[in-house]
């Protein structure tokens, strides 16, 4: 019966509506955003802005009372910004059900008049909060909490009364006893993960007490945890056979008496031989090649009602282990590997073990054949031999290294050489197996846990297998009269293994040992592929969510920063906010691309930072294309009809996902940054062109509308008239580079304005320098390197004539202008030579990085210091010749 649906239950105490709060507009906005976090029927009804102190920093919180199915809970949200603007600004931090374990305790007022209070549910420690001035008051929030608690207590009393009246004492949900009151809080389970390893917000990761498992490791861990959901166990028959052949040759008759004793055909055969060849040569060379004759004989002697093939065979001197499988099962044995270990003082391999590791479906099996130390008194040596094999036998599996004990099922067979102790004064009855086994060394050592810890051996109900006179069933009659012993054994380890038979074969008499066999049914883990596919997909999704929820993440206010219209030398600033609304502290930085995080015309501050949960930071992006960067910028911008991408910033979060932020804008063309040739092609002011038109003009190389750029002429003309008598007009310090008048001069030049010049001689001189240094190529290219090698003014001037007409005209015009100022002693010739040598040739010293090549200064001095008459005569002659050529 669903108690919550009973007709006639008491009316719930009404929770106050939003209208009761004072500042309703922000509250309504906040509630509408929080509502998106919850399902239909789960209603947030009241908010309180608060914060928590984590270390030395404040972390913003937003507390919300949420009601559903007649119960209430307080949700504490991490918030990237207050008030929240979108659902991404919110992340659930903690939940406090308003039940009989809930406590709200108001504390003292701190120095900033912020009230301290705590919330507590269950057995958790109280969570400390502080109020902040926001969309609601603590008193109003507390009033809502108290009314919700009154509602809960009223309902609880009513439920208890109904239980007494109807003798309804408990409800059962999936076999678990749950009270009706607890059932009413089940809606919170969607927000509180039960699996500690897969919790959406893992507190252990947040406080640093555990590491975040990543990728395939985490996925495989979770898949293994759900094995029960997709693994089934299928029983397979495993037949183990062991025989010490005492170096006898392979018999001509088949061995079916030993290998085909089972009623049904086995699925896997594990066949072990000892003393295959113990000659000095075999021992000395540690013979490791399996004997094909014996393996063929084995294959001929297997159960006739199935077809088998050899999986593998491994040998170490006298020990050989061969695995046969039914042909139809071979694809299920997905991989195998072999290993061998010699024991004893010399470890030549006459004693030791060989082993095979097999992966069968989803189970791992290990088969070991060992031959341990002989003689009655060598008990300790046999125990040590087992430990050595167990320790040193390591398989290199696809998933890593695996030792014997790390397999699901282990079968250890062979001549273990444990004997039967003779008790003085007592004659043992050799036909009484139980009395013999009381004194069996292996049984006694296993009982003491000195050897084969965790292994099992089935009941022995056959005669000792050693030592016989070869060719007979008689125990040793030689001079040594060796006591009978159960040397040849089969042991196993693993869950669910059932032994079907365990016996020796008396009819085979070639050796002094009798062969032994044992058959088992073994439950092999096998995937149900339909179930596995479903679990695989579910696990993949849950691990993906786990990794996303437990990775540091950052919320970027916007991923497109629009600068609108920009132009040369104009500083434009845009800000955007980054916030941390995940439960982990976040470290971020902008990724460097070729040693810079952004293009040269941009700057970003700060370039890195750290955000605690609930905190945010403003990032400032500045745009300013100056005379050093404008040409590269113009080259990158290919359109003025639509906004272009100036750059893409990569905001990287340590151990978290990256964000890509596009910087957009529209460029307003300027004469600064354009080539001399392009400026000589314009027939109207640059401000009336778009980039596409200027790009078309740049492709015209041979004919020009004017002999030199109008913008250059306008500056030179102004300086001729106003600046040639101004002292210190050109300075290496470039003191007027940041003058606000520069941009006014830019607009005056770009519009071919008829207004008075907006600047002064000093700002005009700086604008001239910027105009010369802003194009992609220096004015004297492509002759720069050749000019630096000249020794006379005649050689230099002849090279200048090879320049394009606009460059040639500009250079001569500039030189004449500078020479006049120098001649009137208003300009310092050394400063002029250094300054213009740098700009017109742009050659840096190869000896000292970043330092101007001294040859540039010397070349400019040659142009500025030569006899004016010679300079004028040569110049006029060259210009005259080229005038005829140009015509």
Characterise this structure.
The protein has 887 residues and is α+β, with helices and mostly antiparallel strands. The protein is built from 25 helices and 31 strands. The chain has four domains: 3-186, PH-domain like (Roll); 234-525, Endonuclease/exonuclease/phosphatase (Deoxyribonuclease I, Chain A, 4-Layer Sandwich), CATH 3.60.10; 555-667, Immunoglobulins (Immunoglobulin-like), CATH 2.60.40; 702-886, Phosphatidylinositol 3-kinase, Chain A. The N and C termini lie far apart (107 Å).
CATH architecture of the largest domain: 4-Layer Sandwich
Strand content: 25-35%
Please state the structural category.
alpha+beta
Q: How many domains, as an integer?
A: 4
In short:
This protein is α+β, with helices and mostly antiparallel strands and 887 residues long. The chain has 25 helices and 31 strands.
Summary keywords:
disordered N terminus; 887 residues; 29% helix; single chain; alpha+beta; 7-stranded antiparallel β-sheet; Immunoglobulin-like; 25 helices; PH-domain like; Deoxyribonuclease I, Chain A; 6-stranded mixed β-sheet
């Amino acid at each position: 019966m669903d108690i919550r649906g009973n007709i006639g239950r008491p009316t719930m105490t009404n929770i106050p509506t939003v209208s009761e709060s004072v500042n309703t507009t922000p509250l309504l906005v906040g509630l509408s955003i929080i509502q998106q976090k919850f399902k239909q029927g789960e209603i947030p009804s009241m908010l309180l802005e608060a914060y928590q102190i984590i270390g030395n920093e404040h972390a913003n919180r937003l507390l919300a009372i949420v009601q559903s199915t007649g119960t209430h809970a307080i949700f504490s949200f991490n918030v990237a910004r207050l008030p929240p603007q979108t659902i991404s600004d919110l992340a659930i931090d903690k939940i406090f059900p308003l039940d009989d374990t809930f406590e709200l305790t108001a504390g003292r007022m701190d120095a900033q008049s912020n009230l301290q209070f705590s919330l507590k549910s269950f057995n958790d420690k109280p969570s400390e909060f502080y109020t902040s001035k926001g969309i609601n008051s603590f008193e109003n929030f507390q009033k809502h909490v108290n009314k919700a608690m009154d509602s809960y207590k009223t309902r609880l009393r009513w439920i208890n009364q109904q239980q007494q009246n109807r003798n309804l004492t408990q409800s059962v949900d999936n076999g678990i006893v749950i009270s009706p009151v607890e059932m009413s809080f089940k809606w919170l389970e969607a927000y509180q993960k039960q699996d500690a390893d897969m919790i959406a917000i893992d507190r252990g990761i947040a406080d640093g007490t555990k590491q975040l498992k990543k990728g395939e490791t985490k996925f495989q861990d979770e898949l293994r945890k759900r094995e029960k959901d997709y693994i089934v166990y299928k029983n397979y028959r495993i037949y183990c056979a062991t025989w010490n052949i005492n170096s006898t040759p392979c018999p001509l008759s088949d061995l079916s008496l030993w290998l085909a004793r089972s009623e049904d055909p086995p699925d896997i055969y594990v066949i072990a031989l000892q003393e295959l060849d113990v000659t000095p040569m075999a021992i000395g060379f540690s013979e490791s090649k399996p004997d094909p004759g014996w393996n063929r004989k084995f294959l001929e002697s297997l159960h006739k009602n199935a077809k088998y093939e050899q999986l593998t065979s491994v040998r170490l001197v006298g020990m050989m282990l061969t695995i046969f499988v039914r042909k139809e099962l071979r694809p299920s044995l997905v991989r195998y590997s072999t290993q061998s270990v010699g024991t004893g003082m010399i470890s030549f391999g006459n004693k030791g073990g060989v082993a095979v590791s097999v992966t069968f479906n989803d189970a791992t099996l290990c088969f070991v054949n060992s031959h341990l130390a002989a003689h009655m008194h060598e008990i300790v040596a046999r125990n040590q031999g087992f430990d050595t094999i167990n320790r040193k036998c390591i398989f290199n599996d696809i998933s890593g290294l695996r030792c014997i004990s790390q397999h699901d099922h282990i079968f250890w067979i062979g001549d273990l050489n444990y004997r039967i102790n003779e008790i003085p004064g007592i004659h043992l009855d050799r036909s009484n197996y139980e009395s013999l086994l009381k004194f069996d060394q292996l049984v006694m050592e296993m009982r003491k846990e000195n050897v084969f810890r965790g292994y099992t051996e089935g009941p022995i109900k056959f005669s000792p297998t050693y030592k016989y006179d070869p060719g007979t069933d008689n125990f040793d009659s030689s001079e040594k009269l060796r006591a009978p012993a159960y040397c040849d054994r089969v042991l196993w380890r693993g869950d669910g293994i059932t032994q079907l038979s365990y016996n020796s074969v008396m009819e085979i008499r070639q050796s002094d040992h009798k062969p032994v066999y044992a058959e088992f049914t073994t439950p092999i883990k096998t995937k149900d592929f339909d179930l596995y596919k479903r679990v695989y997909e579910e696990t993949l999704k849950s691990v993906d969510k786990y990794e996303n929820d437990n990775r540091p993440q950052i919320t970027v206010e916007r991923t497109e920063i629009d600068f609108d219209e920009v132009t040369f030398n104009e500083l434009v600033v845009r800000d955007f906010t980054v916030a941390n609304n995940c439960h982990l502290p976040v470290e971020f930085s902008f990724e460097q691309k070729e040693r810079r995080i952004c293009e040269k015309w941009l700057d970003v501050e700060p370039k890195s930072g750290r955000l605690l949960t609930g905190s945010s930071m403003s990032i400032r992006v500045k745009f300013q294309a100056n005379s050093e960067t404008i040409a590269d910028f113009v080259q990158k911008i290919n359109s003025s009809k639509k906004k272009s991408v100036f750059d893409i910033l990569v905001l990287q979060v340590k151990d978290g996902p990256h964000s890509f932020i596009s910087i957009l804008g529209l460029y307003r063309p300027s004469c600064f940054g354009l080539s001399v040739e392009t400026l000589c092609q314009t027939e109207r002011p640059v401000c009336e062109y778009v980039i596409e038109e200027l790009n078309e003009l740049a492709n015209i190389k041979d004919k020009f509308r004017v002999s030199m750029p109008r913008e250059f002429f306008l500056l030179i003309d102004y300086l001729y008239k106003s600046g040639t008598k101004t002292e210190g007009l050109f300075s290496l310090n470039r003191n007027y580079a940041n003058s606000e008048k520069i941009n006014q001069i830019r607009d005056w030049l770009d519009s071919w304005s008829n207004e008075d010049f907006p600047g002064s001689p000093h700002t005009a001189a700086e604008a001239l320098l910027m105009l010369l240094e802003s194009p992609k190529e220096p004015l004297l290219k492509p002759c720069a390197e050749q000019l630096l090698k000249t020794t006379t003014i005649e050689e230099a001037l002849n090279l200048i004539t090879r320049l394009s007409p606009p460059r040639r005209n500009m250079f001569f015009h500039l030189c004449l202008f500078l020479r006049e100022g120098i001649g009137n002693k208003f300009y310092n010739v050394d400063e002029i030579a250094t300054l213009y040598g740098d700009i017109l040739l742009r050659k840096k010293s190869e000896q000292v990085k970043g330092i101007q090549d001294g040859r540039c200064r010397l070349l400019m001095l040659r142009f500025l210091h030569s006899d004016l008459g010679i300079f004028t005569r040569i110049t006029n002659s060259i210009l005259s010749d080229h005038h005829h050529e140009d015509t």
